[in-house]
Amino acid sequence: MDLISKKFEKLGVENAPGQESLQKEVKLKFRGEKLQGELVDFSHGDVDAHEPIPGSLNSFIEGFQKGGSQAYTEYRGGLKTRQDMAKKLGNFTGIKIDPDREILITSGTQGALFLAMGATISSGDRVAIVEPDYFANRKLVTFFDGQLVPIPLDYLQENPDGSGLNLEKLEEAFQQGVKIFLFSNPNNPTGAIYSKEEIKKIAELASIYDITLIVDELYSRQIFHGFSYYHLCAQNVNPEKILTILGPSKTESLSGFRLGVAFGSSTIIDRMEKLQAIMCLRAAGYCQRVLERWFDEPKGWMDKRIAVHQKIRDDLLQIFQEVEGLQIRKTEAGSYIFPKLPPLDVSLSDFVKILRLHGNVIVTPGTEFGPGFTDSIRLNFSQDPEQAKKAVHRICEMIERYRK
Amino acid sequence: MDLISKKFEKLGVENAPGQESLQKEVKLKFRGEKLQGELVDFSHGDVDAHEPIPGSLNSFIEGFQKGGSQAYTEYRGGLKTRQDMAKKLGNFTGIKIDPDREILITSGTQGALFLAMGATISSGDRVAIVEPDYFANRKLVTFFDGQLVPIPLDYLQENPDGSGLNLEKLEEAFQQGVKIFLFSNPNNPTGAIYSKEEIKKIAELASIYDITLIVDELYSRQIFHGFSYYHLCAQNVNPEKILTILGPSKTESLSGFRLGVAFGSSTIIDRMEKLQAIMCLRAAGYCQRVLERWFDEPKGWMDKRIAVHQKIRDDLLQIFQEVEGLQIRKTEAGSYIFPKLPPLDVSLSDFVKILRLHGNVIVTPGTEFGPGFTDSIRLNFSQDPEQAKKAVHRICEMIERYRK
Hints:
The structure is a homodimer.
Chain A: H1 3-9, E1 40-41, H2 56-66, H3 68-71, H4 79-93, E2 103-106, H5 108-118, E3 126-131, H6 135-143, E4 147-152, H7 167-175, E5 178-184, H8 196-209, E6 212-216, E7 242-246, E8 260-264, H9 266-279, H10 285-288, H11 301-320, E9 336-337, H12 348-359, E10 361-362, E11 364-365, E12 377-380, H13 385-401
Parallel strand pairs in A: 1-10, 3-4, 3-5, 5-6, 6-7
Antiparallel strand pairs in A: 2-8, 7-8, 9-12, 11-12
Helix pairs in contact in A: 5-6, 5-9, 7-8, 11-13, 12-13
């Protein structure tokens, strides 16, 4: 097999969220009857059940009608949009952002992550990645020929005080030559938030070891009752060594527009723009206009969204907690839960297929978030509440049928 | 300077089309008065002067209203869209395209080019690139650590019989281990079309030397009177070694949606999907819906668009031809002209800035299309016809002022 084939062998997509239709059918031995119920796809949020920010379509239409100047923005995004975003995200995070030099509009937060990694990793560079964390992070390191250094997150502690990040291992990794540390906060897939102490310690270690920090804050607006959130960029860190990524996507149900924002180090932003120029030129011009609705939702809209999702979380957790031997961390932010299943006598890969084909429920296998998570599944619970509960009951029924 | 900084040093964007506002102001010695007239930006087409395909906004709105299934398509694009595109592009090119395996919807044709190069180039691979050709091609080879092998295009022949591609040099390059040949047809920036004989010869050489062909056919719908076009994919080539890229952009004024399509080799398409999954997940879901309008324009719409552009071409050529010592090839397809200027006593880089700051005309320097084109400028003439003529008069006046 040639080099390029080998590289792409490592980048499978058939188990990634939303790609299930590409899976080849395999011979599975089903137990019991097929469970009836409407299909629930927990691989991503349901934007029909939780609608986009009001007015977002209107903003798009105004962008279209604006014509050429909106269609052909600078590669880093239209100036007016950058100014608006710099102000809003500056307020949100508590830092000052220069709209000319320190911010870039991207094709989704995925686009921002790709550009950030492409702009910082040289072949062979060591990159620290949390496990579990967002499924694309490890693939990005592989694609850019970096060397993956996994840092464990002990997210299942009884009385969690912070996310459970192993800070000793992180310092060890930094000592051993890691150049870049990429992590999501809130953590995807567990919904854990990094505590103030953890964030301060990461900032301190990064300063000592001169690490480039890339922080994916995609879910940082949907914080549930009782939890606090700390932006790493607002700590005492070298502003030229940190990049923060945010976007209006899941929380705001705006994924269909593919919008993301990266801000921070002007050196990294400059490189990201160069890469974006050859990657896709710019985020779709007309879509960029929709960002004006972000952080400008109608009064009470975000509060209601958080409350609705907190209720779904509580309902689903209650159902899961009745399963003997199943472990789960209560989601602190965002819309994911990552239950660790009791021992089964089928493989995780087969179990996920069984759920889909015999239970009408789509979930993402834990192995997408780290090779060790062969006993966990991820659910995005931004779904219709009633259907979601029924679907979780079906998952629980299947766990019993296939329990070891 | 570290490795990654060096790499990005080579990927400048400040002279790229549309990026002129990022250029640092320099001290220029202007001659004569500032020329008056409305700003004309020849760096890209004017979608206000030449409007998008009718109904494209409606298709977008329908996509938005469809909700989740449109927002979250498979990474390779929604199945219905792929089926529609496979059929239309199959008819257009004269080949059969499998919608499941051989086609991918991308984030603009730029996205398709990036994915195609990322999916085929291994570090050190030799890649043949035509000079002049689209400005991003060389940067893509650099970014993916390929080795650039330039193939000259003698586009200024008196009586051109074909594009002027140097087929001997191409065969030599293939003999010397080139793995991939990437070129645009019609050629950007010259507007030259490859003849039937050239296309047949490229197919033959590619078969002999087992070359992967990547053909950017972005302008292949806008063919001017008297010229014929031949799709390389319809020739006798190994279908697993060719990828064709098209998109509704300049010709159709749909750039603001960022849509492209790649079709051909299922091996390459599979890899491109894997890369797209970590690059930006998918082309914006709602935008994908707009593709239904492409190749389905109202009767006569494309004919009219071609006729209007042919008239602009003829008018601008007539003005340019009055300049002594200026050489130009008559555009055969697409909306570009690439005049070679007579000797000036300022650098091309300064002359382009003078045009912008003192002549209210934006053009792209020839050096974006190959390092040797220090005496050429590129214009996208998809502009308001009257304004375009006035702007070309201003360019001619400036040539006289700065003539050596």
